[in-house]
């Protein structure tokens, strides 16, 4: 089922500082900040040769990363995203094994314009897993 | 400086359960468990098409992931490893910008037999970064 490691998302309290660090200290290629109001984050993409890191800063009220940053004010790794070919088949297969899908259980359109789901971190040893259909 | 995303390491309290989950629930290719006493962990490699996830379980006394699991008993993402071409040049460049290298500051031979360093998570928004020379 699992395909490529699409990205690792890192929640940060200050996106401009984190972006400057990845660009100037770590020497990585970074995108312009992209506000995604429907996802409650502003994101900067760190482009690596084989995958991506996404730096996330809360945007607006009820940001999905606000609680994470309240608990970890310095920031930290928030989730890992794996690609799947068929997200509904993946969901049904996972649910049949007892795994819990967050929210309504229906895929939403994610930050890359593709269907995504999140799996309950309690079912995967404390790791929030995003599945993205590609 | 930053090259490929070499791996994401996930600390887990029970390696056999986590391995079975990645293999049977998530349908990924997993290695046999490999005890690495000199690193204080037993590791299972989850092979993805473009990168790796490493599932880590504490091994022996003074495991470097014991404190992490004491704080997060369910487990969680422990570190992210980026490849660099020249680890000494990378270190010197980072230290010149004020970043802190953990331990003695000298590279050690990591789990893949290559020189590695860890950067202080406080300097990188709560994320423990491993650099590996490839």
TrEMBL record, chains A, B:
Name the enzyme's class: isomerase
Superkingdom per UniProt? Bacteria
Q: Where is each VOC domain found?
A: 4-134
Record keywords: Isomerase, Metal-binding
| GO MF entry, a single one | methylmalonyl-CoA epimerase activity
What the entry lists under InterPro entries is as follows: Glyas_Bleomycin-R_OHBP_Dase, MeMalonyl-CoA_epimerase, MMCE/EMCE_epimerase, VOC_core
UniProt-listed Enzyme Commission number(s): 5.1.99.1
Q: So what family is this one in?
A: Belongs to the methylmalonyl-CoA epimerase family.
Protein's name according to its UniProt entry = Methylmalonyl-CoA epimerase
Q: What is the lineage of its organism?
A: Bacteria, Pseudomonadati, Pseudomonadota, Alphaproteobacteria, Hyphomicrobiales
